[in-house]
Design a protein that fits this description.
It contains eight helices and 16 strands. By secondary structure, it is an alpha/beta fold.
């Protein structure tokens, strides 16, 4: 099986979920004898990023460069990647389930007359086919989905479904090959403007290595600064469950869950969060989950690696004091 993993970068910086997609590709290749993984880097002036991938366990890196790909447009990316896929002739095309991918990937798959399974959280090999798992009804159930028809098949994986730090290194540098792209200005029907920022305080929690998240247990907005101080001492960001943001105690860009951001930090510290399924689906991919809650039967303990049954108003000051001493 030939696997084609499309990475994502913006202004010369990786979107970290690109590495999760590469891990997914490597793992799938590992259960499909004779498989190979090709990575695609798309943009302008992205040769340095392609060089960064050359040490990874990849058969090849395709550099999809063009002046008209400097700024993202759905038309430009669709036309360019369609040509790259035609040259690579893959069986399976993997993408990270980002806002950008959600915009152009269905268009790309449709342009090739193929289907797409989006927002997957896992996969398994069954005899001569791959089965992909995607959540439904806000994580309450999961569906097994597989492809019919001829390849290429398109799949996007949810952020946090795989650990980006598990990407395998190769014994030899992977070759980099530039793809000649035929793209004309009149083919692009949209004009990109400045990058959108929701607000000055907007934060991308998916890039934070440590998150301190608060729930109803924080009781009142005047108690939030103590959790925020703990987050800063840990070198992380402050996050929250939906009720906190619904009350307006924190902006919506701090919300974790099915209606917020999906994250997979190295450490997720849940303070006073009960663990409703809508919240858990947004953070269960975290490498280490530590939960503190007064209720020993709180659902959050079912996904936590470490659980403390206790009062956060006693434990947060204690943790803060220890960190301040260090």
């Amino acid at each position: 099986m030939k696997i084609f993993a499309i990475t994502e970068q913006r202004e010369g910086k990786w979107n970290s979920v690109s590495f999760e997609t590469l891990v997914a590709a490597q793992q799938i290749a590992g259960v499909q004898p004779g498989s190979s993984v090709t990575a695609a880097v798309i943009g302008k002036g992205a040769h340095g990023l392609a060089d960064e991938l050359s040490a990874r366990q990849l058969a090849e890196i395709l550099l999809v460069e063009h002046d008209l790909l400097e700024r993202y447009t759905p038309d430009g990316f669709t036309i360019a990647l369609r040509q790259a896929i035609a040259q690579a002739t893959p069986d399976l095309v993997l993408l990270p389930h980002t806002y950008q991918v959600r915009d152009y990937a269905p268009k790309l798959a449709a342009a090739l007359g193929k289907g797409m399974i989006a927002d997957c959280v896992g996969y398994r090999a069954e005899k001569d086919r791959l089965v992909f798992v995607r959540q439904m009804f806000q994580g309450k159930t999961a569906a097994d989905v597989s492809f019919t028809g001829a390849p290429p098949w398109f799949v996007s994986f949810q952020a946090g479904a795989f650990r980006g730090d598990q990407i395998a290194s190769g014994t030899a540098a992977a070759p980099i090959r530039s793809v000649q792209i035929d793209l004309k200005p009149e083919q692009i029907r949209t004009k990109p403007l400045e990058l959108f920022r929701e607000a000055k305080q907007a934060v991308d929690l998916t890039q934070a290595p440590i998150l301190v998240a608060i729930g109803r247990g924080i009781k009142a907005p005047e108690n939030i600064p103590m959790a925020e101080k703990l987050a800063k001492l840990l070198g992380g960001e402050l996050a929250a469950s939906r009720p906190i943001c619904d009350e307006g105690w924190l902006p919506m860009d701090r919300q974790i869950g099915s209606s917020g951001q999906t994250v997979a930090p190295k450490l997720y510290l849940a303070l006073g969060i009960s663990g409703a399924i809508q919240h858990v689906v947004g953070m269960k991919g975290s490498r280490t989950i530590v939960a503190i809650n007064k209720d020993q039967n709180a659902p959050i303990f079912e996904v936590a690696d470490y659980g403390i049954v206790g009062d956060i108003f006693e434990l947060i000051p204690a943790l803060t004091e220890v960190l301040e001493k260090k």
